[in-house]
Amino acid sequence: MALKRLKPITPGQRFKAIVDFSELTKIAPERALLEPVKKTGGRNQTGKMTMRYVGGGHKRRYRVIDFKRNKEGIAEVKSLEYDPNRSCFISLIEYNDGEKSYIIAPSGIKIGQMVSSGSGVTPEVGNTLPLSEIPLGSIIHNIELKPGQGGKICRGAGNASQLLARDGKYAVVRMPSGESRMILMSCVATIGTVSNPDHNLQRSGKAGRTRWLGRRPRTRPAAMNPVDHPQGGGEGKSKGGQARSRNGIPAKGFKTRSRTKVSSKLILERRKK
To answer: Residue 207 pLDDT > 80, yes or no?
Structure first.
């Protein structure tokens, strides 16, 4: 889908660029697959604010997504829908026995198309199968890290990984960040690229649209007092030294990954800086 620019009849529309939703199915979501979303406003169970700049936003309902794709059989794509809880689009599929579920919609999926999952499935767009059966060089998304866990990585709009090689019981996958990682071949993945690749090119056009998403205004660290942030204080405009977080952790180039993390041995090449 391409970006759509509006005629600037208001100041907020002058630089606005949004994704054209013309290809989406204009129907209400499947009621049986909806759950309520409780808003926290950034507060924990005691009422204390633990996450700043969170609050407000339009009311949402959560769409239950089938990340596991563990039901074998053929399903028909019934719709391509917008999901307010994620950057990509979702598809409603219906199996032969009448069961319906939502899946992450890959780019190029069509209404009426048949998708399937399980061992022995053809490696076509939208199909889910084990890494051991996916041809080398294939573009994949919604990848499991542990068998039966469900897809955990490569689920955002426009993301895609590539299956590079197989080594013993592991498959080597290149992540969108450039990192090369070993994943058990019994884990499953879906063929294709995640839909809505133009998501990162959008421009909201006005501050109010950000508030609709539940994000409150963010205070610049340089505008704070010394008691509130390491970069605060000073007379007039002053450079606050090296960029760092509220807790004093450097914001650029500082490695925060634990050296004792077990999965480090599965990473063959770190992500590009």
So the answer is: yes
Query: Strands, DSSP E only, in the chain?
Result: 3-5, 17-19, 34-36, 61-63, 73-81, 90-95, 100-104, 114-117, 128-130, 139-141, 161-167, 170-174, 180-184, 188-191, 267-269
DSSP bridge partners of 19: 3
CB of 255 closer than 8 Å to CB of 271: no
Q: What's residue 49's pLDDT? A: 95
Q: Cα 138 from chain centroid?
A: 20
CA distances from 52 to 26, 55, 84, 190, 220 (A): 35, 9, 21, 36, 13
Under 8 Å between Cβ of 254 and 158: no
Q: In the chain, where are the structural domains located?
A: 3-200+263-269
SS3 at position 223: helix
45 pLDDT band (50/70/90 cuts)? very high
Give mean pLDDT, residues 70-92: 95
146 close to 125: Cβ distance less than 8 angstroms: no
State the pLDDT at residue 126: 95
- Cβ proximity of 108 and 192 under 8 Å: yes
- pLDDT tens for each residue of 211-243: 999 999 999 999 999 999 999 999 988 887 889
The whole-number pLDDT of residue 239 equals 82
- HSE at residue 89, side-chain half, CA atoms within 13 A, is 27
Just give the CATH number of 3-200+263-269: 2.40.50.140
Identify the pLDDT of residue 142: 97
pLDDT at 136 over 80: yes
> 144 is written with which tokens?
């499991």
Q: Among candidates 88, 103, 123, which has minimal Cα distance to 198?
A: 88
